[in-house]
From TrEMBL:
CDD domains according to UniProt: leukotriene_B4_DH_like (cd08294)
Protein name: Prostaglandin reductase 1
Membrane spanning stretches: none
SUPFAM superfamilies, per database record: GroES-like, NAD(P)-binding Rossmann-fold domains
UniProt organism field: Spodoptera litura (Asian cotton leafworm)
Lineage: Eukaryota, Metazoa, Ecdysozoa, Arthropoda, Hexapoda
Amino acid sequence: MVKARKYVVKKHFEGLPKREDFDIVEYELPPLKNGEILVKVEWVSVDPYMRAYNSRYPTPYDQFGFQVGLVEDSKDPRYPVGTRVVSHKGWCDYCVINTNDPNAGPTGQPYKLPNLKGLSNSLGVGAVGMPGLTAYFGFLEICQPKAGETVVVTGAAGAVGSLVGQIAKIKGCKVIGFAGSDDKVKWLEEIGFDKAINYKTADIAAALKEAAPKGVDCYFDNVGGELSSTIINQMNDFGRVSVCGAISAYNDSNLPKATILQPALVFKQLKIEGFLVWRWFHRQSEAFADLIKWIQNGDLKPREHITAGFDNIFDAFVGMLNGDNSGKAVIKL
């Protein structure tokens, strides 16, 4: 029998998640059945959607999330021992995965870690995983950027935003990013952003007008709130907005008020579309091929904020929600 540990959410979060909202449960994994694999987890992801989805599930529930792990035992010939897999089994150190679960949605089925050609396996929960797919399809499919256009990204120093900005540069766009510290601003400009702005200290409207005097064509929105309203009100005719999230409000008990958007949407004839990345999961191979190629040739420079240890997953999660990370927050087990 293999003993495993997992994080269980026992209480819905009120404001910022608290350690007492979780239990760490130790238990014995059952023997494998046909179609199952035993996975030793090596890398665990923490992401903003884990906070956003918290209230959607009745408690208690096992904390979900993407992970990369090594198959240590198998009763599925498609996943022999030694295979590395990506799954959505969450914050645990070992797990049993049913590879043929008929009720599993797009996140439920494991898949083999792509051939990363010598890159770190941690990228399987980052730039060559769900965040990479989010940046790739959420930006390219919805914004449909054209060379020479001006792109704005909020949450630009995060796992998704930092990739979106670099992909926009690859596509020949001018890119402006908003982040929450001077260090993050400096990093964004080091990786190719034409301009980065500290939203906590800048006059946002004036700074954006100076950075984009001819207006904004595409906006990738990770944060929501008044910052987004300000950006949308400086967009050009037929501008496109891809709404990925609203991390500025995830931990607020009372939702913030923001300037009305309808006049800008109507008079500038803007397109604004929210998305869930699962709609493109069936196309992951085409995105992964481009992302790996761009990383290898130096056009895309993913950054990771690595925390070590199973017991530190909660701290990494809260740190990510507080904006402590630049790039992708991952935990090495």
